[in-house]
Design goal:
The protein has 5 helices and no strands. It is mainly α and 132 residues long. The longest helix is centred in the C-terminal third of the chain and has 25 residues.
């Protein structure tokens, strides 16, 4: 039997995540994409905490890599000319969260990841309230 979608033939959960993310980002406006990134980062951080609690170190690594990449993307997407002080404040927050995640990644304490997710959730909630 031929395999037509070899890139999608691996892990079913990973395949679903890629297809789901692609469907949510296709045609989304920049504000919706930021909201999506916040949600994905929060899920990655809480997933890392869960993975630590369940001794799933492969999952921990995957989730932390994802969270770090998203924090980089959020910072990279800031418009410092139009955003002014807000952009600078967010850049500082994203860098601080990234540093917290990287430093905590060598240990096995889920609390720093839950804390980072909670901080990001506050920003995400504020972003959503401004947007809606």
């Amino acid at each position: 039997m031929a395999r037509y979608a070899t890139a999608l033939a691996g892990d079913p959960a990973a395949t679903y995540s890629r297809v789901d993310l692609a469907s949510r980002t296709g045609g989304a406006d920049p504000h919706a994409l930021v909201e999506l990134l916040y949600g994905e980062a929060i899920r990655a951080l809480t997933g890392a905490a869960w993975a630590i609690e369940h001794n799933d170190f492969r999952m921990k690594s995957e989730r932390l890599t994802r969270a770090t990449a998203i924090l980089f993307a959020l910072e990279n997407g800031l418009d410092f000319e139009r955003g002014g002080d807000v952009s600078r404040t967010l850049a500082t927050l994203y860098r601080g969260l990234r540093s917290q995640v990287v430093e905590a990644s060598i240990g096995n304490d889920p609390l720093p990841f839950r804390d980072a997710a909670a901080q990001l959730k506050e920003i995400a909630d504020a972003w959503a309230s401004v947007r809606h």
